[in-house]
Amino acid sequence: MNSTPLQQAVLDYVVTVDGLYGHYLDSTDGFVANAKSIEQVQSQLITVVPPGTDLDARNMFYGHGNPNDQANRILHRTTQGEYKQRNAKGGHNHVRAAQLLVVLIYEYWDSEHRAKIATAMNLPSPNDLQVPLIGDLRLLRQDVIHHRSLLQLKHVEKLQVLPGFNAGDELTLDGEAVESIVRGLKAAMDELVVVSGETDPEHRKIWHVQ
Length: 210
Description:
This protein is mainly α. It has two domains: about 5-30 and about 90-205; about 40-85, no CATH class. Helix content is about 60%, strand content about 5%. It has a two-stranded antiparallel sheet with strand order 1-2. Strand 1 and strand 2 (about 75-80) form a beta hairpin. Helix 1 packs antiparallel against helix 2, helix 1 (about 5-45) packs antiparallel against helix 3 (about 90-120) and helix 3 (about 90-120) crosses helix 4. About 20% of the residues are buried. The mean pLDDT is about 90.
């Protein structure tokens, strides 16, 4: 089908969101694989190290060069236990990936797509285009960037769509919550087309709103 300017502008943002979500899914799958990998290594090491050795306390290094060479540049240091914890499902890497997704979804909207969609809708200004879910993401994004991901009361009180957040908590979104946000965004974009009267029976197939 031939897309209208509005349909194309909306599709472009949905494709961007899909790409960001794919990155999140690949990352979280990779984190789980990392945790399983170090657990497998430890299960082999435990048979050859002295009894009582705490493998979780052993250091892991990222760097350039031979680790036994004093000229080696150490870029990152952690322990095997910390590595397992941060990569395990629900660990810090998963939390950070979801926070990053919130930031990027909003940044791409605000810096590029909002203006294009507003123009296609013949709105006087991008500020006239209001999407409640994205407004909530804007508030969460501010806390990620400016408050070390700790939710501020003034922002929690303004949330219109996203429920269940408490002031003072770290922004933590599990896989189901992230999926719900992505599905909500697609539905909200679909609604922009519907209310503008530029819809037809085939248009939903473009961005797979189920």
